[in-house]
Amino acid sequence: MTKNIFDSIANHYDSPDRQALAKIIREELTTYLPRDSHQKVLLDYGGGTGLVSLPLAERFKELIIADASETMLKMAEEKIQAADLKNVRTIHADASVEFPAVPFYHSYFCTFPIQRLFS
């Protein structure tokens, strides 16, 4: 299998520039979140290190970060543990190979294309 390019950049992905961009994206997304989001599950497909979605975790019943890069997910899992977030989990999924078997979620977004819109 070809090495995922994001595996090689995961350790320095959360740069100050990307953190600033993630904040802008998060602020924009927040305007579209349902008012009753505490009862909903958020799926962040392409969520990587959780840079965009982890700060939103407390607003949802559950947050699921799915990504094709195991190394990016490992970084997200370290953040999840450090913040002691009990309602967050990760899924290793590569839609270019096979779409993951995940049920329908109340809210979802795909981080990677959104980042391209704002950069």
Give the biggest beta sheet.
4 strands, parallel
Look at the structure and name the CATH superfamily: Vaccinia Virus protein VP39
Give the overall shape, derived from the CA principal axes.
globular
Q: What is the CATH third-level topology name?
A: Rossmann fold
Strand fraction band?
A: 15-25%
User: If helices are DSSP runs of H or I spanning 4 or more residues, what is the number of helices?
Assistant: 4
CATH architecture descriptor? 3-Layer(aba) Sandwich
Tally of discrete structural domains: 1
Order of helices and strands: HHEEHEEH
- The N- and C-terminal alpha carbons lie at a distance of 30 Å
Strand order of the largest sheet: 3-2-1-4
Helix residue percentage: 25-40%
Task: Tell me, rounded to a whole number, the average pLDDT.
Answer: 84
Low-confidence stretches: none
Report the CATH C-level class. Alpha Beta
Q: For the CA atoms, what is the radius of gyration?
A: 14 Å
Number of strand elements: 4
Pfam families: Methyltransf_25
InterPro entries: Methyltransf_25, SAM-dependent_MTases_sf
Protein name: Methyltransferase domain-containing protein
Q: What is the structure about, briefly put?
A:
This protein has 119 residues and is an alpha/beta fold.
Describe the structure.
This is Methyltransferase domain-containing protein. InterPro entries: Methyltransf_25, SAM-dependent_MTases_sf. With 119 residues, the protein is α/β, with parallel strands linked by helices. Helix content is 34%, strand content 17%. It has four helices and four strands; from the N terminus they run H-H-E-E-H-E-E-H. The chain has a four-stranded parallel β-sheet with strand order 3-2-1-4. It is globular and about 40 Å long. The model has no long low-confidence stretch (mean pLDDT 84).
